[in-house]
Automatic annotation (TrEMBL):
Subcellular localization: Postsynaptic cell membrane
One Gene Ontology molecular-function label: signaling receptor activity
Gene from which this protein is expressed: Grik2_46
Topological relation to the membrane, as annotated: Multi-pass membrane protein
Similarity-based family: Belongs to the glutamate-gated ion channel (TC 1.A.10.1) family.
Name under which the protein is recorded: Glutamate receptor, ionotropic kainate 2
């Protein structure tokens, strides 16, 4: 279209023509009638599928480890205190006044069962008798009340609020080469990367030069590749056009530069 103006076969070029320094050397431009910038078009971020261990999300890994250690410590405390407290030794045969042996309810298995019942807010048929075991039980009950209340409140939030996830969230993810990306072979977008002094854009330009297969002949070709996990760089106005018509696509991050569309005319 610019060739038509340069050769005098047209007076004006009214289209999505970006104002660049190179183009201003051969044609004149009107004031910008629309501002825009280079951005990324990629597939719409998808919601995470519920994993098997989603129920562990409300607490961090460190909290789960400490909770497990606390569980073992309290269970072991019941076992030791049960052995040391005379009140916890019972006569297994009430009819015999002086039995030859006594039994203790806080065996290893029963201690673990009592601690588990309290943790799951279900209780147990066991009843601590000694002051020491009752004190430990009271502390453990209060602790589990706080932990269970916090867990259930956070679990509801984790299950109802699902944050969409995307492989890329900014231009830095493209620089890290997390996905394949490219731009139109010839145009203002490609020219921007070729002339940029930003280290990130220099690296991206080197990537595109080393992988010409990711460069396209048209914007439409680039948009069609996006469904296959490809990220395409083009002007934000074109991205808005395509994302409004294709719900599975979205604009990623902010614009990389600022420029405008102008009406091209013969140089005076």
């Amino acid at each position: 279209m610019l060739k038509e103006i340069i050769k005098g076969r047209a007076d004006l070029a009214i289209t999505d023509l970006t104002i660049t320094a190179a183009r201003q050397q051969v044609v004149d431009f009107s004031i910008p009638f629309m501002n825009l910038g280079i951005a990324i078009i990629h597939v719409e971020p998808q919601k995470d599928t519920q994993a098997f261990f989603t129920f562990m999300d409300p607490f961090s890994q460190g909290v789960w480890w400490l909770l497990g250690l606390s569980f073992l410590f309290v269970s072991f405390s019941f076992f030791i205190l049960g052995r040391l407290s005379p009140s916890e030794w019972d006569n297994p045969h009430p009819c015999i006044e002086e039995p030859s042996e006594l039994v203790n309810q806080f065996t290893i298995g029963n201690s673990l069962w009592f601690t588990t019942g309290a943790l799951l807010q279900q209780g147990s048929e066991m009843e601590p008798k000694a002051i020491s075991t009752r004190t430990v039980a009271s502390i453990w009950w209060f602790f589990t009340l706080l932990m269970v209340s916090s867990y259930t409140a956070n679990l509801a939030a984790f299950l109802t609020i699902e944050e969409p996830t995307s492989i890329i969230n900014s231009i830095d993810d493209l620089v890290a080469e997390k996905v394949a990306y490219g731009a139109k072979k010839i145009g203002s977008t490609r020219e921007f990367f070729e002339k940029s002094g930003d280290p990130r854009y220099i690296k991206m330009n080197e990537f595109m030069n080393a992988n010409p297969k990711y460069l396209t002949d048209s914007n439409t070709e680039g948009v069609n590749r996006v469904d296959k996990g490809y990220a395409f760089l083009m002007e934000s106005t074109s991205i808005e056009y395509h994302t409004m018509r294709m719900c599975n696509l979205s604009k990623i991050g902010n614009a990389l530069d600022e420029k405008g569309y102008g009406i091209a005319m013969r140089k005076m």
